[in-house]
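Researcher: We're teaching a course module on how sequence relates to structure. For the next exercise, students receive a sequence and then see the predicted structure as tokens, so they can try to spot secondary structure elements on their own. Here is the exercise chain.
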Amino acid sequence: MKVAIITDQHFGARKASKLFHEFFLRFYNEVFFPTLEREGITTVIDMGDTFDSRRGIDFWALDWAKENYYDRLQKMGVTVHTIIGNHTAYYKNTNDINAISLLLREYENVICYSRATEVKFDKRNILFIPWINQENESETNDLIKKSKSKCVIGHLELKGFNANKLVVMDHGADSDVYKKFDLVLSGHYHTRSCKNNIRYLGNPYELYWSDVDDPRGFHIFDTETLEITPVNNPFKMFYNIYYEDTPHQLLKSVDYSDKIVKVVVRKKSDPLQFEKFIDKLYKSNVHELKIVENFDFAGVYDTEDLESDESEDTVSILNRYIDEAEVEMDKSMLKNILKEVYIEACEAD
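Model: And here is the predicted structure for the students to work with:
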């Protein structure tokens, strides 16, 4: 049996930005739904964080999600198995009050899993594990130990995996708990990664700058063979453009309409030509434009000047800065603090 797996859709994200939801819709209209129809798929597994805010919902975003996603799945006769993630559970210590159960009651084809449950697909038993919290931790661990399923699908926070392509999480549950299973598929982290039997499948589309140039999409899962096949989303919201005295005539500016663009200046010999290049971007109706020209960190601190390559990620630069700084404090703790602040900053509007 082939099913579609999608996760971390975050309907209502970016303060229910209409720009982003139009971007989401292109993925659903041109990639997701056509693939379901072409492959004859009638089952979708949603691994969690379907909605963005656990404390409330923007009415426009809810209407958008119903009209463009749930209504269409219902008309197609698709059953949606939805696992509760941390963004869809109202409280941090229980999954009982959640967005799926409260907001989607009219959809008989949407099944919600707020507690660990074994679900059968044809001849295959799969252990569904929603967000683990204080209330369900003991029950979930008991079921993990007792389960004879070969596959787990859940919304797990495991240490040692990438939260995004720049940051590896150093806290969370130990992945050894799941070593008895042949395959573990999870949502929660938005970037794809794989270690041993565990795969994070990543979310469908770019949401923040930390997602730029990172593969996105959803997956087709064969429950019989446990084969997982990615279906990539070709559409991007964030673009890095590297300027090296690039003639403005060579810029295909139409590609950047309604997009968020960062121009990284590596060489600028003629300011007038650079202005023409930037003007062409603005005239293309770019949604947001940032220009990065200075990578000089001199004067930031009193040790040797920190030389930075624009290809080096922000967290690495921060860690190197801390390593070289003469401060009397726990540098590991400081690195963790700055990493958490950086992750929050990446996800801020």
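Model: If you want an answer key for the exercise: DSSP finds eight helices and 15 strands in the chain. Residues 296-311 have pLDDT under 50 and may be disordered.
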